[in-house]
Design brief:
This protein is mostly helical. The chain is 56% helix and 5% strand. The chain has a two-stranded antiparallel sheet. Helix 2 packs across helix 3 and helix 6 crosses helix 7.
Length: 178
């Protein structure tokens, strides 16, 4: 290779750029990044004052640093993970919420087992307890809560009132043989 070919390789490569602060027409990006990192290690006494707060240097670091595939702003949590910590938490919360909302999920089964055990054991007063999942009937829960608010009752007391009223109605209908 002659000198002209070497010069053309340097000019055409993306590994070089024109540094405006240093007035260098063909500075290697690796040199710029090394200077930026050296300044970051010693912020109180930077070895390269001319490279302080250089937007080109920051851009060069951003180009070489891996970014989160979801947001593209932060570095990933590890070299094997494609997401940053924030995006990983968001994804995890979405998956957990979807899993909990799925019918027949492990959490639903655990809740039903816990309900059975609680109903068998009873409360401290010797009373029985039932846990109701209104997941697919949220409108009924809202109506019951509104009734409870109107009647100045707790939600639990409103449900007991509805059940007692229903039981009286059913037992009255049986007495009349309707």
């Amino acid at each position: 290779m002659n000198d002209m070919q070497i010069l053309e390789n340097i000019i055409n490569k993306t590994d070089y750029f024109e540094c405006k602060k240093m007035h260098a027409p063909h500075m290697p990006k690796a040199t710029c990044i090394a200077r930026q990192k050296a300044n970051q290690k010693r912020p109180n006494n930077p070895p390269y004052l001319e490279c302080m707060n250089c937007s080109q240097g920051e851009r060069n670091i951003m180009e070489t640093t891996a970014r989160c595939k979801e947001c593209g702003l932060k570095p990933p949590i590890s070299k094997n993970a494609p997401l940053c910590a924030s995006c990983m938490a968001i994804r995890s919360n979405k998956l957990r919420k979807a899993k909990n909302m799925a019918p027949g999920s492990a959490n639903t089964q655990r809740d039903s087992r816990g309900t059975k055990e609680l109903a068998e054991k009873g409360s401290q007063d010797g009373k029985k307890a039932v846990i109701i999942d209104f997941g697919t009937h949220a409108d009924i829960l809202k109506q019951t809560q509104k009734l409870a608010d109107d009647e100045l009752r707790t939600l639990e007391n409103q449900i007991i009132y509805i059940l007692k009223t229903h039981a009286r109605t059913v037992s009255g209908a049986e007495a009349l043989d309707i």
